[in-house]
Design goal:
The structure holds three protein chains of three kinds.
Chain A (H helix, E strand, L loop, with lengths): L1 H21 L12 E2 L7 E2 L3 E9 L16 H10 L1 E10 L2 H12 L6 E4 L2 H9 L7 H7 L2 H8 L4 H5 L1 E2 L2 E2 L1 E3 L10 E5 H6 L8 H13 L8 E3 L23 H6 L7 E3 L5 E3 L4 H15 L14 H5 L3 E6 L9 H6 L5 E4 L9 E3 L7 E4 L5 H17 L23 H13 L18 H11 L17 H13 L1 H5 L4 E3 L8 H23 L6 H26 L1
Parallel strand pairs in A: 3-4, 10-13, 15-17
Antiparallel strand pairs in A: 1-2, 5-16, 6-7, 8-16, 9-13, 9-14, 11-12
Helix pairs in contact in A: 11-19, 15-16, 19-20
Chain B lengths: L6 H33 L2 H5 L13 H7 L2 H33 L8 H13 L4 H10 L6 H8 L3 H12 L3 H9 L4 H12 L1 H17 L2 H6 L8 H9 L10 H10 L2 H34 L3
Helix pairs in contact in B: 1-15, 3-15, 4-7, 4-8, 4-11, 8-11, 8-15, 11-15, 13-15
Chain C lengths: L2 H27 L7 E2 L10 E2 L3 H8 L1 H33 L4 H12 L6 H12 L4 H8 L11 H29 L3 H9 L4 H25 L7 H7 L5 H4 L2 H11 L3 H30 L5
Antiparallel strand pairs in C: 1-2
Helix pairs in contact in C: 2-13, 3-7, 3-9, 4-7, 5-10, 7-9, 9-13, 12-13
Classes of the chains: A alpha+beta, B mainly alpha, C mainly alpha.
């Protein structure tokens, strides 16, 4: 009896699981659907085209009207009505870690939805090297809109290079404002005024100022001189994440002549990794000193969120790019409407402003190898449409709901807008002057119509008191542009430092995670004083031995190309 | 128990009562803390000022939750998952535990199956193959993936098995002589005398199903399919790993640090377990005992 | 009914459980081949390039694997020992309480934390040990300087073990309490007549009576030597404490789902399974050999 039952049992169950395994049906290739319209970049499909996507959503979003979903809302309706594109959302996940997890699983299972936005190039290269992505080179050339072409060109080919793998374009790049990569000092001007202090310029000035903030308990007992990174952010940008580092110490490193995290061209045909330099070592010593003196947030590295103490108005100084004041710390203004955040560069001892620069963008729209040409065209059209119409959408429904939204903006967008908006304010130009359909500065016209409602005179020295917070979203944008971008738009930069590469080499794909972890740990520990500065030397040795030298050689080869 | 009235003994009693009282405070504190944060003033809570008692008073978060469809929906999914999952696991556990509680002599293949069980408890192909398998079964985004994913915790099988082993042989033998087969013996003799251990295990399983968040995150494709803990994990803990924040993402993040609302959601998530468990608690002591002790 | 006839029913009873185990445990186990491949999702599990033990070799080269293993062992063993001892002591203390009502009251509350998910507990732990948390409020009250507990590698493991014991000691005591109730009261009475005090009767009656339970729990937990608790560590750690706080499970998770090193992650997971399995086999045979005790 026993002998018979066991095999039967096994066969039945195995058969069950086999059945389940074999039910993957191959995708039927459909013939191309005709596209109508004068400009194929904005053409309408004759027959509906289904585009399957995965989407990152904001779990706290309240803007979607009741009954609407990720797959049916004003944006999907717009795509359906204008281009006959049906959006089918295969899956969603909360933005951040959870979304990355889903992307990772989708790549692992080899089953990518037709379109998927990933926020790290590593995902794109992994999918590409696994042969999961569509070579869109020729279709992109055919279907890109004039605007997209201009914006791509504004990066001098870097965007195209980033979006390609082995010379084939396999994704749509994200192109963001250059200003996102320029880190400056944000400081509470109202605190300075209260203590009758000048704006600090150098690191020693900053030290004195932070000390004055803390000693005078400007924000009470919990006053923090300088904010630091959270448990999920880092002390400085790296070549893989070269922008938007709120709460790091990038300007401090730059002012000390260090560019940690970047691959630097030594000018003699060799490259070096910025972190293992003597200047980085010295910068870390300085930061450790500031931390020890209690001038840097004692909770740095353990907070959930960089913005928490800043928004609670406990912080006098923090570092970050143009949008960090306004967009980045909105609650600070809500909690204290007089919080006069101002942005300035940090100068080195020779009075010069150096800064590291970012790559074009960090996210990519991947297109699955299994997509039909129609679907690829549809995704390209969706991108064209977003670039053209983003400013016209009714954003009371968050723009994040636009399927496969991956921003393409001219790299000098913020600087351009800042100059033009000042002209509008001063009456030199009129909002209508900017009403041009093909402009690559796609938000210019809308902003021009709004600016007068947000900012009141005098316009030469803008403070928080010049701004109206009646429409808070507009306030945030204008504050970031007019105050946050002032240094980059108006002050000369002595040295712009680019990384030799902004993506991983072959060896890095295997070894970088380990090296990076070692680096992050060493840096954080030295700053907060749990390791002595001498541990830096051991780190340099380990780093070189565990693949660093090998990787340096690979990057050096890139330089020669 | 010895009840002599020496001074030392009395001092010990008093000290013991106080010590255990302190432990009670320790253990109740998480729940109290969450409640305090949830009804406190928002600014105070966000600044981390709430410690032992609420600062200010507001039930605004709770009002907000009542209008949050996604929250209510995930609450319902968790309820379904817990109820169905518990029944399912309980049934399988009992059915496995009974044959395995037989001796080698009575059930010759017993040890083989036992080793398969232990083997499966210890070996797994890892997250990715497991995900791929569930995907092949077309269970992704299906509540059954959550229910079946809970499956048979081997530890529970062992507990029930050991409990069964301690059921007096003579009752069983008498029934067998009366002609009762294994099924009748299991359902009419073993199960009725095992209510305490079954109730205990039911509690274990339901706690697992109610608290588990990772499967929900990985196996469900859309937020309207998330169980409650996954939903909460998304709100409270989920944060980007890199430093590469865009303004859009950043704005979202600042919304995420709404501590009072989150605490209120967490508190509501705790409630069902807190309500159900006192009723099952009485089975605890009589329950696990025999399951864990083989005499 | 003859003996074989009964056995047939035993097999039938096992069918649902075995189907589940085959579908959700054994079939995914084929994924272990990934550990020996350079897994390429485009080619799939059975067509990727075979690299033999390459992944394992690389694992041992990594600095991380050593520190991760040490962390895992320290945390897991610490938890195993304390989660056996603390509940035992607690159960014995509770057993000495005369008032049944107080006993019930205490029991009701100490079980509570167990029912909370680590997602929830983590937010509370971070709130308590945070810079402006309860502990630091006290430290400052007594004139001390606030400390950053969650960012001190020197105490992170202790914190992990401590908070785990805090969460689980009540629940872990349940089994001991259960065992205590089975002790025949007449034994205590006899001991009382012989003039044994509370301490002595605890030593000579209570402890031997529940010794089997302690052994069983100890043996069953041996398989957890490499389980340091993913949910807990994942929700509490940060890069500053990686050196002492990163455990196998979190490391494997990051390898696989954040760094996309699928094969390496699978290899590490496989190593963990093998070690756990060996440990279980050893502990099983040990307890059988020396205590004549069959666990399963």
């Amino acid at each position: 009896m026993r002998k018979k039952i066991l095999p039967i049992l096994l066969t039945v169950t195995l058969a069950l699981s086999m059945m389940a395994c074999s039910s993957n049906t191959a995708k039927v290739k459909t013939t191309d659907t005709k596209i109508t319209g004068a400009d194929i970049a904005f053409g309408k499909f004759e027959k509906p085209v289904d585009v399957h996507i995965g989407m990152s959503v904001d779990p706290t979003d309240k803007t979607l009207p009741a009954g609407d979903k990720a797959g049916s809302n004003q944006y999907t309706k717009y795509l359906k009505d204008n281009y006959n594109i049906n959006i089918i959302v295969d899956w969603t996940a909360g933005s951040g870690n959870d979304y990355n997890q889903k992307v990772s699983l989708a790549i692992a299972s080899g089953k990518l939805p037709d379109g998927l936005v990933v926020n790290d190039r590593t995902y794109m290269t992994k999918a590409a090297s696994s042969g999961l992505l569509y070579d869109i080179s020729s279709l992109f050339k055919q279907y890109q809109s004039a605007q997209v072409k201009l914006i791509m060109a504004s990066t001098e080919g870097r965007a195209l290079e980033n979006a390609s793998y082995n010379g084939k374009m396999v994704s749509l790049p994200n192109i963001t404002a250059e200003a996102d990569g320029v880190h400056e000092m944000w400081i509470r001007k109202d605190w300075l005024d209260k203590l009758k202090l000048p704006v600090p310029k150098t690191i020693s000035d900053i030290e004195k100022t932070a000390k004055a903030f803390v000693d005078n308990k400007v924000a009470g007992k919990t006053t923090i001189g300088i904010a630091g990174p959270s448990k999920n952010t880092f002390a400085y940008c790296t070549f893989l994440n070269s922008s938007n580092n709120m709460g790091g110490f990038d300007p401090i490193f730059s002012a000390m002549g260090a560019t940690p995290g970047y691959w630097l061209d030594n000018g003699d045909g060799t490259v070096s990794y910025g972190t293992i330099s003597d200047t980085t070592r010295k910068s870390l010593e300085t930061l450790a000193k500031l931390y020890k003196e209690g001038l840097i947030d004692p909770e740095m590295g353990t907070r959930d969120n960089v913005g928490d103490p800043i928004n609670a108005n406990q912080v006098g100084i923090f570092f970050g790019p143009w949008w960090n004041g306004g967009y980045g710390n909105g609650d600070s203004f809500k909690n204290d409407p007089k919080a006069n955040w101002q942005a300035y560069p940090v100068y080195n001892d020779n009075g010069q402003w150096d800064t590291h620069m970012k790559t074009t963008g960090s996210s990519y729209t991947m297109i699955s190898k299994n997509a039909t040409p129609d679907v690829v065209k549809a995704i390209l059209i969706m991108n064209n449409a977003l670039v053209r119409d983003e400013a016209k959408f009714d954003v009371s429904v968050a723009i994040g709901w636009y399927p496969l939204r991956n921003v393409m903006a001219a790299s000098n967008e913020v600087e351009y807008e800042r100059v033009e908006l000042l002209k509008v304010l001063k009456g030199e130009t009129k909002p209508e002057d900017y009403n041009k359909a093909d402009s690559m500065y796609k938000l210019m016209y809308t902003d021009a119509t709004k600016i007068a409602n947000v900012i009141k005179a005098p316009f030469d020295d803008l403070n928080v008191s010049n701004f109206s917070t009646a429409n808070f979203g507009d306030f945030q944008r204008m504050y970031s542009m007019m105050i946050g971008d002032r240094p980059f738009a108006t002050l000369p930069i002595n040295k712009k430092i680019y990384s030799v590469t902004y993506s991983q080499t072959a060896t890095m794909e295997q070894k970088w995670a380990n090296l990076k972890k070692m680096e992050d740990e060493t840096v954080l520990k030295i700053i907060v004083g749990t390791s002595p500065i001498s541990s830096f030397d051991q780190f340099v040795k380990d780093w070189k031995a565990q693949g660093g030298d090998q990787i340096t050689a690979e990057v050096q080869k890139l330089l020669k190309k | 128990m010895i009840r002599n009235k020496t001074l030392g003994s009395r001092v010990f009693d008093i000290g013991n009562i106080i010590l255990l009282g302190i432990l009670v405070i320790f253990c109740f504190y998480p729940i109290w803390y969450t409640l305090c944060v949830s009804i406190s003033n928002k600014a105070a809570a966000n600044a981390g000022l709430v410690t032992f008692y609420p600062i200010g008073f507001s039930i605004e978060p709770y009002k907000e939750i009542l209008g949050d469809k996604l929250f209510l929906n995930s609450f319902w999914i968790s309820t379904q998952r817990t109820v169905i999952g518990t029944i399912f696991s309980l049934l399988i556990t009992v059915l496995m535990a009974y044959p395995l509680s037989r001796s080698n002599r009575e059930f010759k293949a017993r040890n083989i199956f036992m080793w398969i069980l232990v083997f499966c408890m210890l070996f797994n192909g890892g997250l990715i193959p497991w995900y791929l398998t569930i995907q092949r079964y077309h269970l992704i985004n299906n509540i059954w993936a959550l229910i079946l994913g809970g499956g048979v915790p081997v530890f529970n099988v062992i507990l029930v098995m050991n409990f069964f082993r301690n059921v007096p042989r003579d009752i069983e033998e008498a029934a067998a002589i009366d002609g009762a087969g294994p099924w009748r013996i299991l359902f009419q003799i073993f199960i009725p005398v095992s209510i305490p251990v079954l109730a205990t295990i039911a509690l274990f399983i339901s706690v697992y199903h109610w608290n588990e968040f990772f499967n929900g995150l990985v196996l469900m494709n859309t937020a309207d399919k998330y169980p409650l803990t996954t939903y909460i994990q998304q709100l409270v803990v989920n944060i980007p790993t890199g430093s590469n924040l865009t303004p859009d993402q950043y704005k979202k993040l600042s919304l995420l640090s709404n501590r009072t609302l989150n605490a209120a959601k967490v508190f509501i998530a705790m409630l069902p377990m807190l309500i159900v468990y006192p009723f099952l608690q009485k089975y605890f002591v009589t329950g696990i005992m025999i399951g864990s002790v083989k005499e | 009914m003859n003996k074989n006839g009964i056995q047939k029913h035993y097999y039938l009873m096992l069918v649902p459980g075995m189907i589940w185990i085959i579908m959700f445990s054994i079939v995914p186990m084929f994924g272990i081949v990934m550990a020996f491949e350079n897994f390429n999702p485009g080619l799939g599990m059975f067509h990727s390039q075979w690299v033999g033990l390459e992944n394992f070799k690389y694992l041992f080269q990594l600095n991380d694997s050593k520190s991760v293993l040490i962390n895992t062992l320290i945390i897991a063993v610490g938890k195993m020992v304390l989660n056996l001892l603390v509940p035992l002591v607690f159960a014995l203390l509770l057993n000495e309480i005369i008032s049944i009502r107080y006993k019930k009251f205490v029991q009701t509350f100490v079980y509570l934390p167990h029912f909370l998910s680590w997602v929830i507990m983590a937010t509370i732990v971070l709130g308590i040990f945070g810079y402006s948390g309860v502990i630091n409020t006290f430290i400052q009250m007594f004139g001390g300087h606030p400390r950053l507990f969650m960012a001190e590698p020197g105490i992170f493991r202790q914190l992990i073990i401590g908070t785990d014991v805090w969460k689980e000691f009540g629940y872990n005591a349940v089994i001991f309490l259960a065992a205590l109730t089975t002790i025949n009261p007449s034994l205590y009475e006899a001991a009382g007549i012989d003039g044994a005090g509370r301490w002595k009767s605890t030593l000579h009656i209570t402890l031997p009576a529940i010794a089997t339970t302690v052994v069983l729990l100890g043996v069953l937990s041996l398989g957890n030597v490499l389980n340091a608790g993913f949910d807990q560590v994942y929700n509490l750690y940060n890069p500053i404490v990686y050196s002492t706080g990163d455990i196998l499970d979190t490391w494997v998770y990051r390898l696989g789902l954040q760094n996309l090193q699928y094969s390496l992650a699978t290899a590490a997971g496989l190593l963990k399974s093998v070690v756990s399995f060996v440990l279980i086999v050893i502990s099983y045979s040990l307890s059988y050999k020396f205590a004549d005790y069959t666990v399963f």
